[in-house]
Design goal:
Layout lengths: L19 E9 L15 E8 L1 H16 L1 H9 L10 H6 L1 E8 L4 E8 L4 H12 L6 E5 L2 E2 L6 H4 L6 E8 L21 E7 L5 E7 L12 E3 L6 E3 L65 H65 L4 H25 L3 H45 L2 E4 L5 E4 L2 H17 L5 H21 L4 H18 L8 H15 L25 E3 L6 E3 L16 H12 L4 H17 L5 H4 L2 H11 L15 E5 L11 E5 H7 L5 H4 L2 H18 L3 H4 L9 H8 L10
Parallel strand pairs: 3-7
Antiparallel strand pairs: 1-2, 3-4, 5-6, 5-7, 8-9, 10-11, 12-13, 14-15, 16-17
Helix pairs in contact: 7-8, 8-9, 9-12, 10-11, 11-12, 14-16
């Protein structure tokens, strides 16, 4: 180990430290060179032996060992008094040592006092805050060898109160360089200083002193001011910390800590006074004297009765004011309640009217599959009503004729619905193509840790965006002749460039031939109406060109048919209705289905031809259920296992398509909510209520006290039936807490029992 470095501490720096002074020698020197007016008024030179309280104890033990073994002590004195201390195992881990850190490549030295029981990782965390460098980026080496994070200073070989020097560097110098710590405005006392102590007449010893920061303000003890520089020097306050009393682990009681009862008592001090009157030899003027006539004497009883009447009067007015405030608050609450009821009634009325308008708009202008299911469901209801009316009113040949007329009218309605379907399909196809192109041209997005969304365009997304814009220009009809020629020329160059760079094919050649044909017809002055078929062929072929991954690589991620023939064999099933192989996503399966049945198109066709059912209401119920459960319990998965058919069985069969409390049958106003709100939603933990009833039900704390015994028994019965039905589904069987229901318990739920009540 190299010789300890000596550090000079200014007088100002010693204010924040508390040191124990063992010897002090003061010598006043006068400046002989000055003629009486020196640079300083007085100069003091202090020779101080500085050590901590721990060093004093260690020093006494060192003196005892010197008398026992002089030879060993001579070797120990060369290394300093800090390296020859014999400490117990518990004191070694809490002892400190001087750690010098050399920052590379700036070669800036930092000296700190560090506990030798801590690891190198703790040392990295200590310096990561000052250097603003993550601890995992910092690398500490000793003799050009990396030091592990789990090693302590004791493992490295550092002795208590010893000294060691490390080299610290950064694993990522470009992003996290090792910059020296900026010096502060004023000097701060370092954590460790080295003091040279005179032990004998000719021998000196270097002692490492740890600086203990003061926790209280420094007392002002005076000082000096330099005459020339006007610098002030204050006397240092040297004081050790008070020793803490040991805890005797005994509960002590003292009379000083008892509660004192305070008592106030007024005192009247005596005061001497005198009166001067007119007499012989003394005249007192009576010009300012007043004649006082005594009034009516008021007894104590009269005084207290008067005060009581005044208090009663004040109380009556205050009570009247409080009663008025209370009645005003009741009146205001009543008005608010009535206004709220009126707003709710108006809101419900507006929602009902809006619902009727939306349904009417869906019937008159159907766009989606759900709209056409609604039309076919309405047609089914109308047909059933007409058949019932015909069966009641007519019979025989007239009945057959009426049924034939009804069949003819139904056929006309179906034909009209299909015409609307074809028109909507054309409109939806254009929207689907535009949505498909926008999805291909959409840039890549990801969300950072701070919530900001970053977008990035790749070469494939840029290519898809150019093709999308070119397709939009081709399909637009509001173009002049010159603009149309420019668009066709751009399309021709794009197709030719891709055919030269990629490979020639029949598709690109057909597009080029059609473009040349339209250009030739435009130059001949052919009308736009005669060019509609040709332009549609160009748009169709160019859309096929866009959907080819060889010309548009980005589109390969969104094609339903995979390009790899090996992927076609995966997840492919045979539909028994159309006898075609379809992907697994084209089959609508129930939760209790054990085999693949009909595909989605066959099911829709069968529904329109036979059952004509409308599942839009059940879809809305399932959507509201999933949204509410996603807010309450994001990890719940039972709601996502249910399908529209399962929810229909739960609503129609188990709950009878009506509210469990009020019997309301409009499905637009019904919701499925939790029966016990602290448990996740499941078919055996739900209840069908209206929106207002559901909001009130979720606010209940105790269900047993809120509902009657009959209501609770009916709900439990439906829960038992739902548990029995859905327990057959393997995916939901895992979510059941109790998969088997005892027959006795089930009979108790299903059989109604008389309720006995005590009457007075």
């Amino acid at each position: 180990m190299s010789e300890p470095e000596s550090e000079t501490v200014s007088p100002e720096a010693s204010f924040g430290a508390m040191l124990q002074v063992t010897q002090t020698e003061t010598q006043v020197r006068e400046d002989d060179d000055d003629d009486g007016d020196g640079d300083a008024e007085s100069t003091h030179e202090f020779k101080v032996d500085v050590c901590t309280a721990t060093d004093m104890l260690l020093k006494e033990e060192n003196i005892k060992e010197l008398h026992k073994d002089q030879r060993d002590q001579d070797d120990i004195n060369k290394q300093g008094s800090e390296s020859n201390q014999t400490l117990s195992s518990s004191d070694v881990g809490s002892s400190t040592a001087t750690v010098k850190i050399l920052l590379m490549p700036e070669r800036h030295m930092i000296t700190v006092a560090f506990t030798i029981g801590l690891t190198i990782l703790d040392l990295k965390k200590h310096f990561s805050l000052d250097l603003r460098v993550p601890s995992d980026i910092i690398q500490i080496t000793l003799d050009d060898k990396s030091v592990d994070d789990d090693q302590t200073l004791i493992d490295i070989g550092v002795q208590p109160h010893g000294m060691i020097q490390f080299e610290m560097s950064s694993l990522d110098p470009e992003n996290y360089p090792m910059r020296p710590v900026k010096p502060q405005q004023e000097y701060n006392m370092p954590d460790v200083i080295t003091v040279r102590v005179q032990t004998d007449t000719d021998s000196y010893q270097d002692v490492v002193v740890e600086i203990e920061r003061a926790t209280r303000g420094k007392a002002f003890l005076g000082g000096y001011r330099h005459k020339v520089t006007k610098t002030e020097f204050h006397h240092a306050a040297v004081q050790t910390m008070p020793k803490k009393r040991p805890d005797r682990d005994t509960e002590m009681f003292s009379r000083d800590t008892q509660t004192v009862e305070l008592k106030n008592q007024a005192q009247q001090c005596s005061k001497n006074a005198s009166t001067q009157m007119t007499k012989i030899g003394c005249y007192v003027s009576n010009m300012e004297d007043k004649l006082i006539t005594p009034g009516t004497y008021i007894t104590a009883e009269e005084y207290h009765s008067k005060r009581l009447r005044a208090v009663i009067t004040l109380q009556s007015y205050v009570r009247r004011w409080l009663a008025k405030c209370f009645t005003d608050s009741l009146r205001q609450a009543k008005e608010q309640r009535l206004a709220w009821l009126e707003n709710e009634r108006r809101r419900k009325k507006e929602e009902k009217e809006q619902q009727i308008r939306d349904e009417y708009h869906r019937r008159m202008n159907p766009e989606s599959k759900a709209d056409f299911d609604l039309l076919y469901n309405a047609l089914k209801k109308w047909r059933m009503e007409e058949v019932e009316r015909i069966n009641v009113t007519v019979s025989g040949a007239e009945r057959k004729a009426a049924l034939c007329a009804l069949l003819e009218q139904e056929t006309q309605f179906i034909s009209s619905i299909e015409r609307h379907r074809m028109a909507a399909g054309t409109r939806n196809q254009d929207k689907a193509i535009q949505a498909f192109l926008n999805k291909c041209a959409e840039p890549k997005k990801w969300r950072a840790f701070d919530g900001k969304v970053t977008q990035m365009d790749t070469q494939f997304t840029i290519r898809a965006k150019e093709l999308r814009d070119l397709y939009s220009s081709i399909t637009r009809a509001q173009f002049t002749k010159d603009e149309r020629l420019d668009v066709l020329l751009t399309l021709k160059h794009t197709v030719k460039a891709s055919s030269r760079s990629e490979h020639k094919c029949k598709l690109t050649q057909d597009i080029v031939d059609l473009i040349d044909r339209e250009v030739d017809l435009l130059m001949r002055g052919v009308k736009k109406s005669n060019l509609e078929g040709l332009r549609k062929r160009i748009a169709t072929l160019f859309l096929q060109y866009i959907k080819t991954p060889a010309f548009n690589p980005q589109v390969s991620k969104f094609l339903q048919v995979p390009q790899d023939p090996a992927d076609l064999k995966k997840n492919i099933y045979l539909c028994h209705g159309c006898n075609e192989y379809q992907s697994s996503t084209d089959f609508a399966l129930k939760t209790n289905a054990s085999a693949v049945g009909l595909c989605g198109r066959c099911l829709d066709l069968d529904n329109e031809a036979r059952r004509r059912e409308d599942f839009s209401l059940y879809k809305n119920l399932l959507r509201c259920l999933r949204e509410s459960e996603a807010e309450c319990s994001p990890e719940a998965k039972i709601t996502y296992l249910l399908q529209e058919q399962d929810l229909r069985y739960l609503v129609d069969v188990l709950w009878g398509s009506q509210s469990a409390l009020s019997g309301w049958k409009d499905l637009h106003d019904l919701l499925l909510v939790r029966w016990e709100k602290h448990l996740d939603w499941s078919p055996w933990n739900c209840i069908l209520l209206t929106k207002d009833e559901a909001a009130a039900h979720l606010k209940l704390e105790n269900i047993e006290k809120a509902y009657d015994v009959v209501v609770i028994r009916n709900v439990k019965q439906k829960h038992a039936l739902a548990r029995k039905y859905f327990s057959q589904i393997p995916a939901m069987a895992e979510c059941l807490h109790d998969t088997e229901i005892q027959p006795a318990a089930l009979s108790n739920l299903l059989v109604s029992k008389p309720i006995t009540k005590e009457t007075k």
